[in-house]
Amino acid sequence: MNEKYATADAALYLGLKPGTLQIWRCTKHSPAPAYIKMGTRVYYLKKDLDAFIESQRVESV
Q1: What is the pTM of this model?
Q2: Phi and psi (nearest 5°) for 4?
Q3: Which domain holds residue 37?
Q4: Which of 1, 2, 43, 54 is most buried, judged by most C-beta within 10 A?
């Protein structure tokens, strides 16, 4: 089973502030990590956070 992270934990994992993830969700910022909304709660799956990190990778020339 894939680990679920609340916004604060996901932000810590990514090295961001929780408010950054909240703003990205509200503004449909792209690229942003995928999330799951269950009622009023928001969760991020570890695999989605890892995919987001990988998508930000820049190769030097």
Answers
A1: 0.87
A2: -105, 140
A3: 4-55
A4: 43
